[in-house]
Every structure is written in C-alpha cells, then in structure tokens.
Amino acid sequence: MRIALTGANGQLGHALQRVLGPTHELVLLNHDALELGKPTAVETIVQTQAELVLHSAAYTNVDGCARDPALAYLINGLGTRYVALACQQLNVPMVYFSTNEVFAGNQRQPYLEYDPPAPINAYGRSKAAGEAAVRELLTRFYIVRVAWLFGGERNFVRTVLRLAHANPQGEIRMVADEIGSPTYADDVAEAVLKLIEMPFYGTYHLVNDGACSRYELAQEILRRGGYPDVRLKPTTLYEYQRDSTPPPCSVLANIAGAALGLQLRSWQEALYDFMHRIQMQSATPMANPQP
Fold first, then answer.
1. For position 189, which CATH number holds?
2. 264: nearest Cα among 43, 53, 84, 15
3. List of long-range contacts for 220-223, beta carbons under 8 Å, 24+ apart
4. Choosing a second label site near 134 at 20 to 30 A (CA), which of 61, 74, 166, 280?
5. Domain for residue 54, yes or no?
6. For residues 182 and 225, what is the distance between their CA atoms, to the nearest angstrom?
C-alpha cells in the first residue's frame, strides 16, 4: 500500500517507518515538505497519490502550546483539517494520532475511547480540535490516542537518564501525583500496522498496559539504568510550576483495540526493550543496566 506519513522525522514517525517500511511504500513528509498551518498542505498530500495517510505530525511542545495557543490551534487543529481534506479529495482513510491530554484527568478510573473529551490546556484543546475535524470531514478514519510516548531521541526516559548520568549521586525532583500510561512508540506502530490491515475504523487507545506516576516511572528508569544512588524527591503538580497544566490522572483504557487482539504489553516490558536499545546504540549513557 502507498502510504503518506506526516511528521516523518518525529518520534512516532521514525517508529512507523521502522515497522511499516518493510511491507508498505511510504511517502515521507517532514516539516520541510509539508507546512501544516497552510492550506497548501492539502495539495501537497494529494500529490502523493497515497492510498492511506498516517498523520503523526503535530506541535507537541505542551508548554509552547500554552504560551502560544493560537499557533497550537493552527498546526494541530487546522493543520489536521487540511490533512483530512486531502484524504477527502483522495477518497482514502486517515490515521490521526491524538493524545491523553484531550481529557481533563479529573477521574480515577481509566478513560474509555468514547468518554467525552474535556481538555484543560492549549495542547489538549488543539488536539481535540483535530479529532473534531477528522470526524466532521471523513467517514473512514482511525483516531489513535497515545500517551507519555517514548522511543525516540527526546523523551522522558532519556531526560531522566541524562540527569542521572550528569549527577549519579544527586537528587531529582519528580512529580508523584501525575498518573498516566507510558507508551513505547514501536509498540504503537506495530498495533497500527495490524489495525490498518483489518480495517476496523474508529477511535482507539493504543497504550501499553498498566499505569504509573511520573515518580514511579522515573524509579523504574533509574533502577533499570543502574543508578541506585540517585535520589528521587517526590513533588506535586502544584509545586512543579510550568506553563502548561497537565491532566492529573489521564490513564487510557485500551478496550476497542484489545477486542480486536491489539493488546499492547506492559509498560515495564516495553521500557526494558527501549532501554536495551539505548544501551546497544550507546546514544544515552547508562551506568549499569539491570534486567
């Protein structure tokens, strides 16, 4: 299948290339090739003559979105609308990657696929606008929500490892009351590969199984990275001031995907595989990796 991939240079984009590249013809659209905030994006995608569009491009700097919500809406909201319009013209399905941050995070039970979005920050609002545009314009689509993504060069896992390596006897402050679903980009890509071959259109939560706090995730990263002497100091969302306001508890339940056999493994198993890959690549230092 000929597939156009937006955000080809991003964390998820690279994972999709690794997984889908061997069996599909990918047309890679990075930032230089596709200006999402402009209507010209429609024609750029139409010219690919794709049979499916994977839309992983987004403005994902959540604090940047809070500082400039108009830019976030332009790229994530209207930009997604342009991608959907291109799919409409091509008469092809679209996969739109969304986020846990479309939810308020004010409930203790995991969010289901059709729970109503109620974002509390600019990033979440812009991604929810993208979801609305897809549903408004298309009848054949997959909305795939992911959360706390890791797998590329810039993510929470690598940040914790860099901080630990810089000061292996030091202390790291980590938020203990933000709960979510850590998710490995390669596992998402594997699930998407199976999903598009079914095809069963609709909304999916493709996240690794289980949930934890940022503090608990950092604990596991330090343990597996071989940094037993780094001290974690728990802090709260209120104390950890930042421009954006993340949803406190935005765990996603994978119900629709699991019913089709798309059950992602535990986040602990996925984290171990990613950290093993880091070790093999030697891109991010680890002291004494543990199984």
1. 3.40.50.720
2. 15
3. 220/268, 220/271, 221/157, 221/160, 221/161, 221/271, 221/275, 222/160, 222/164, 223/290
4. 61
5. yes
6. 17
How many distinct structural domains can be found in the chain?
1
Does 288 reside within a domain? no
Q: Tell me, yes or no, whether 283 lies in a domain.
A: no
What pTM was computed for the model? 0.94
Token reading at 5: 């991939």
222: tokens are: 């330090």
Domain of 186? 2-153+182-209+251-265
How far apart are alpha carbons 29 and 26 in whole angstroms?
9
- pLDDT tens per residue across all 291 residues of the chain: 999 999 999 999 999 999 999 999 999 999 888 999 999 999 999 999 999 999 999 999 999 999 999 999 999 999 999 999 999 999 999 999 999 999 999 998 999 999 999 999 999 999 999 999 999 999 999 999 999 999 988 899 999 999 999 888 889 999 999 999 999 999 999 999 999 999 999 999 999 999 999 999 999 999 999 998 899 999 999 998 889 999 999 999 999 999 999 999 999 999 999 999 988 776 555 655 555
